[in-house]
Amino acid sequence: MTLQEDQLNDLDRAILDYLRANERATPTLLMLELQDNGVETGVRQYVNSRLSRLAEHGHIRNVRDTGVYEFASDPRQSD
């Protein structure tokens, strides 16, 4: 089941935006890139938990279970 837009937090939105623009990233790379762009990410474990949540709802994919994530769909866009 996909998420609704109002179920996303600011970090979720930043993750989706980054992956849509850059195709793939690891949790550490995402954290560093987002922080460089002024996004409050918290610790890497929090970034990883947000990635896992977005993946379990089908909005991003963990490529071959490698810890590299890629964009799949955006809950902010209606079909």
Chain-averaged pLDDT: 94
Main pleated sheet: 3 strands, antiparallel
Radius of gyration: 11 Å
Beta content: 5-15%
Number of extended strands: 3
User: Are there runs of 5+ residues with pLDDT below 50, and where?
Assistant: none
Describe this structure in words.
The protein has helices at residues 10-22, 27-36, 44-56, and strands at 24-25, 60-62, 69-71. With 79 residues, it is mainly alpha-helical. Strands 1-3-2 form a three-stranded antiparallel β-sheet. The chain is globular. It starts with 9 loop residues before the first helix and ends in an 8-residue tail after the last strand. The model has no long low-confidence stretch (mean pLDDT 94).
